[in-house]
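Team,

Forwarding the record for the chain on the shared tracking sheet. I've put the sequence and predicted structure together so nobody has to dig through attachments.
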Amino acid sequence: MSKKYNVFGIGNAIVDIVTEVDHDFFEKNGIEKGVMTLVDEKRQLELMKVIDMQKSKMSGGGSAGNTVVAINQFGGKSFYACLVAHDTLGKFFLDDLKRNGVDTALKHENCPEGHSGRCLVMTSPDAHRTMNTFLGVSSFLSPEHVDEAAIKESTYVYLEGYLVASPKGLEAMKEAKRIAQENNVEVALTFSDPSMVKYFSKQMEEVVGTGVDLLFCNDEEAMIFTGTSSVQEAREKLRQVARCFVITLGANGALVFDGDTFIQIEPNKVQAIDTNGAGDMFAGAFLYAITHGHSYADAGKLASLASSRVVAQWGPRLEPAQAKAILGDLIAQA
């Protein structure tokens, strides 16, 4: 029996404010470069005063949010569990989900008072992205926002690693995983960012628990989580907690484990402009592919191609027409 949704995603609802900064901006403003840092609203407003807001671009974001949108752009169907406030940014975020065909249980008129989450995405000339995130009401995402009926109607549940930073978010992840496992729904997890594995290792281990069906991580996250110093060592330890997994390797492509075989995914050489959203796009393209009859090897090829197109432009997402063209390119190569 076919399910209504390919993927049920759960994560922070964030509106991205994407801006370009110089190399010395980080040291000058006391920012740790290359990672996601949670900040309070006061700190974020201070930073917004020293960047050029006129040249900044606003877009729907959030790690899992980007992934479920990508799935839909390729032709899949997703549901997103998240939380926004009854404010302008909240409406912007929900309208963006609707425009991309992503279902959610949220209605703007029923959203809580307060401020919706926003992320200042600072891209430096070396194409690295540094994020300072104010979660707003998203920090109150909890088990009550987990839609059991939607999970039962999904092939995969996709858990965003950033949620481990919030006690309520952690409980929501565990609840979504519990419902999925009780209803034979596959569980996928992304570590999201090295800082989540480094500073919230205990919480991440709680989510992983006895294991997940599919894990997405990059090489740095894989080594931090497993306490190893090489991808070779890390991949062996990951086999103990993930039935299948993907380790993205930046400019060196990716390593896919399909539960039986290790598959090396070749990179697509591009001039990187902005790495924001590359991992989210990889996961979205990969999940779309494996829920539409493609092999793990072909899913890796599609994901690699899609993420290479994302880093070659500004912003974490493609346009729907771009996604369809990438899919056409892959089919033509087959």
